[in-house]
């Protein structure tokens, strides 16, 4: 697990031009993120949120995510399936189960079975990027070990076109 996560973090930091201290590539993933956050004078959770948004920009990951729903609300309502979808790609990540609930006022509440802090930050960045991708206007707020999502306008902007195969886009 650490190799896959470490490579992703290294690639993220390199693409974002974040300098690491000498030997930082030998640190565990959390150590690399802490080192980078210190160098950027930025809280670690903000850097992890940026990592979540960066993950959506990776075509293979974007396709896996967009396959989860027709629109942003549909995507959110299928978030509970995300850990199993990730396990189809790699089974050596410790992905928490995702719980969803909806309040009477239409807010969607997302909770995690474990590892709330890092997953809250990572999923917050990922959801912000996916909301933009779908063209939805929403507010995503970390609360009580999870996230609260308030969708103001699900068709605020034109979303990015999705085709399951990249070859369809080329034709």
From TrEMBL:
SUPFAM superfamilies: Ligand-binding domain in the NO signalling and Golgi transport. Gene3D superfamilies: H-NOX domain. Residues 32-134 form the Heme NO-binding domain. InterPro entries: H-NOX_domain_sf (IPR038158), Heme_NO-bd (IPR011644), NO_sig/Golgi_transp_ligand-bd (IPR024096). This is Heme NO-binding domain-containing protein.
